[in-house]
Amino acid sequence: MAVEAASVRSTFLGTSSVHVTDGVSGILIDGFFTRPSLLRVALGRPIAPDLGRISDALSRGGIEHLDALFVAHSHLDHVMDSPEIVKRVGGVLYGSESTVNVGRGADLGEQSMTRISDGDKYAFGDFTVRVFEGAHSPGDRFPGTIDEPLVPPAKASAYRTGGCYSFLFEHPTGTMLVHPSANFVPNKFEGLDVDLLYLGIGALGAQSAQFQNDYWHHTVEATRPDLIIPVHWDHFGRPLNKKLRPMPRALDNFAKTKELLDRKSAESGIPVRFQKPYETITPFS
């Protein structure tokens, strides 16, 4: 029986959170729904997952069951809510040892967590997910690892990077790459050919022109996508039920990034579009 391309749907949920499903298998990247105020983060106040916001986001996103939840790295805006999501809708939490320690701190059972490494492949129904280890965007504020169970509430600085990963989704109807962090490992994606690239652009506007060109070369030119959807550009201190806005100018230069994307899109002929929160697309049809 032929698999229809329209069966695969991807939903953007703010920051670099993306839900992918074909109606049978469901996979989530990150899942950061608490989105505490940046002032609270900056003041170093302890933060914990907001269970109400998590439940609301799962409901609005139509996420009733997961097979897997992959965490890009172990900063607060990627991993903090992930164990609570797995508790609610099932699946296995996949991430670095740091991510696993966040799961342990949330009393997630060992059977519900898997440590990932560069090159790992995992199958979920018709999906295969391949792991690529990479690098955090320049200016990592909280580098290092989480070496013991992290019990919330905790300061944002307790959420250390751990490993940093991108995820290639392969399905009989198409291929997509979710690349959350705006950095690159030279030639890491060489030879890939994807239909859709979820491209991390956080802090990209604050980098040099040389870095921006190199980033485009080693991500976009390497993977030759039919469509680019930017991620990790929004002000993640604002609730997801409010209109998304870019990060404050003091933390990023979104206008410069947008100019770069517009210019590169025109030069390459590859369309760039921003997906709205909770908007679902059929990327392979």
Automatic annotation (TrEMBL):
Residues 14-201 form the Metallo-beta-lactamase domain. This is MBL fold metallo-hydrolase. It holds the Pfam family Lactamase_B_3. It comes from the Bacteria. InterPro entries: Metallo-B-lactamas (IPR001279), RibonucZ/Hydroxyglut_hydro (IPR036866), UPF0173_UPF0282_UlaG_hydrolase (IPR050114).
